[in-house]
Amino acid sequence: MAKTESTLKNMVLTLLVITGVAGASLGSMYELTKEPIAAAKLAKQQAAIKEVVPEFNNNPGEEVYEAQSKEGFTLKFFPAKKDNQLVGTAIETMTNTGFGGDVKIMVGLKPDGSIINYQVLEHKETPGLGTKMDVWFKTDKDNQSIVGKNPAKNNLTVSKDGGEVDAITAATISSRAFLDAVRVAYETYNQNNPAVEKGGKDESVE
Amino acid sequence: MRKEEKMNQWSNFSKGFFKENAVFTLLLGMCPTLGVTSSASNGLGMGLATTFVLVMSNLVIALIKNLIPDKVRIPAFIVVIATFVTIVEMTMQAYVPALFDSLGLFIPLIVVNCLVLGRAEAFASKNNLVSSIIDGLGMGLGFAMALTILGSVRELLGSGKLFGIVIYPEDYGMLVFVLAPGAFIALGYLIAFINRVKKTA
């Protein structure tokens, strides 16, 4: 087969055909993977909810409600109930102050506002440093852990900023972002649940 | 005759591992090499993703090489490569979300990996289909091997783990190896070592 010559007509035509074929194949690939991607995201969300709240027997995904934070982020609240009694709320929260942009986490709050557990959903932090946030803040070592703390009573900022949480080694910015996302969750939660008061009556801080 | 051809294809395949290894000898594709190799499994994942793109783009380019006018070959190659990269990205996101979480950021960068474009330009556009596929496979697996070695060294020295398995407590790890400078240091020593081995061999 002879080599196609580099005339204008040939060049335009070849590029047109190549980009057309590429576009078409990507379009069909997108259609093909759309559902599995959505399913994978949903499965991750469900797993994250299970991780951050105590045992429940309702479907938090169905009772989800949304609220705007002061900063303009849209937060999702998944109330977890056992026998119609609220045992905790999984909050999908975020911040845009991460080292690599947005940080999305799921944090579980008890009805009194203390932190049950958390799960990191999405971030673009540095691998090996900021990415450690997925376990760092629930490791019970020195002042790393935020589990069981209540943002109303505890100053949940990094020790460099006068708070009481140890930042991830060499990833202070990521740590700040993480704690900021927790703060956003707590504040928005309080705004939308005025009945829930700071500290609460039941002393369930572990 | 037949046998000779077989031998040629074998050396065509194996050159990617040692003689013309993309990372250790040609120093191509440094961006993903230094960027993703903070752990062995990241290195392996990135290497295999690149291998797939390399084989597929070599295949397509070997097929259409005569149809593409010379003056527009580079944009044409890039479109082909970018298409396969996006396919890899979407497939990964759909079926291996865990790997996508750790590599997601770097997958689009395969497009600008000079290794892929380099093989398209230097090999696939001049050779037949079978040789091009074998070349892509050898180069890609050689790249994956280099990334896995570098990732293992960095993970072991930096965080005391190997493929996520704890070898010694993380507190004794040298943090610098997880960071970017550690990537340069580890890569430098590895290249020196490989060169030494090559000289004596």
How does this model look, in words?
- The complex is a heterodimer of chains A (206) and B (201).
- Chain A has a domain of 141 residues.
- Chain A is α+β, with helices and mostly antiparallel strands and 206 residues long.
- In chain A, 35% of the residues are buried.
- The longest helix of chain A is centred in the N-terminal third of the chain and has 45 residues.
- Chain A has three helices and five strands, in the order αβββββαα.
- Helix content of chain A is 34%, strand content 21%.
- The C terminus of chain A is likely disordered.
- Chain B has a domain of 139 residues.
- In chain B, strands 1-2 form a two-stranded antiparallel ribbon.
- Chain B starts with a helix and ends with a helix.
- Chains A and B meet through α1 of A and α4 of B.
- Chain A: Keywords: Cell membrane, Electron transport, Flavoprotein, FMN, Membrane, Phosphoprotein, Translocase, Transmembrane, Transmembrane helix, Transport.
- Chain A: This is Ion-translocating oxidoreductase complex subunit G.
- Chain A: It is found in: Cell membrane.
Distance between the termini of chain B: 29 Å
Total of helices of chain A? 3
pLDDT < 50 runs, ≥5 residues of chain B: none
Strand content of chain B: under 5%
Strand segment count of chain B: 2
User: Largest protein interface?
Assistant: A-B, 32 and 33 residues
Could you say which overall geometry of chain B the principal axes of the C-alpha atoms support? globular
Major sheet characteristics of chain A: 5 strands, antiparallel
Strand order of the largest sheet of chain A: 1-2-3-4-5
H/E topology pattern of chain B: HHHHHHHEEH
Q: Flag low-confidence runs of chain A.
A: 196-206
Give a brief description.
Chain A is an alpha+beta fold and about 210 residues long. In chain A, about 35% of the residues lie in helices and about 20% in strands. Chain A has a domain of about 140 residues.
